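Per-residue structure
===
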Amino acid sequence: MRALIDPLEAERRLCLVFPRNSFDTVLSSAQAGWAVAAMIYVGAVVDDEDPTVWARPTTVLWQQEAVLTGHTTDEERVAWRKAAARGQAQVQALLDSWGEQHKAAYRDTSRETLRDETFKRWNELGALRRLSGVPTASSKPTWALEPHFADLFDPDLVDDALDVAVDTWIRSYMEPGQRLKALQARDLDKASQAVQVSLPDGTSRNLEPGLSSLIIKNVVEVWAPKALAQPVVLTISEPGQKLFVGDQRTLTAIGLKLDVNNILPDALIADVGVTPVQFWVIEAVASDGPITDSRRQALLDWAERQGIEPGNCRFLTAFESRGASPAKRRLKDLGTGTFAWFTDEPEHALRWDLLWPGV
């Protein structure tokens, strides 16, 4: 049986698939999230007409937190499914045998909302299927999640992988009008959560939400104006090989050609106020990835391929704080000749270098 998901997390993911500013809220309500968790619990995920693993609204309504979190073996999940299919008295008897009180998540009076609105709309959108050949008024279990929809609620699917999976599902299973609504809503939501960076030339740039973007924002807005004579942001790269070119004229003038398949740093900032121009290669460490000796060499090789003299390169690893876990773990790995900077102590920097070069 599939891995279980918390109802609140299921609700959050439903909001990614069916954004509330574009779709009826019954598609992503708290009750809808509970329904996903309850149906996965009983194994009501099918791509055929197997009559044994379907659910009905009361399968969802009678479910409770103590069962979802405390009785998670396959045998217990099957026992619950069979009891819920037979009736509330059988559910009560099963709970008694487990030493649990019956505290249903929802009253039976809410079944119409679940059946006639949430289930119906999910069915129309290809997320849920109904067992064929059974009268509409039948009390038999007739509902199951489509496997491709249930895949979105795998608890191991997180972060960028989850976003990609949701976008793929939207593009694959929604009709064009619905797809447009969903993707536009997601784009607007991402824009509202984006980290806006003010660049030295007075323009601004939106980065993806996240700690790494916040660190880069501080590097550009706080560190660069204080540490450099005349900073120019040349590039910022983000997860998924997203590359922002900050000053194409400068890149052209120095003959720098960027290739997203190369080993791009998180940011490249030129100090054009000194001679020769210095190129600061920057890595923002939200979880891992400081400039170690091997990373420094790889970045030097990258810079040399771009026509930048190694002697004109400087290296900065930026952390959130000296007390943050990534810094505690990785400061010991800083490469020789590199700097470390912390967003909560902007007036200071650490430098790791040889006291007696050549000795």
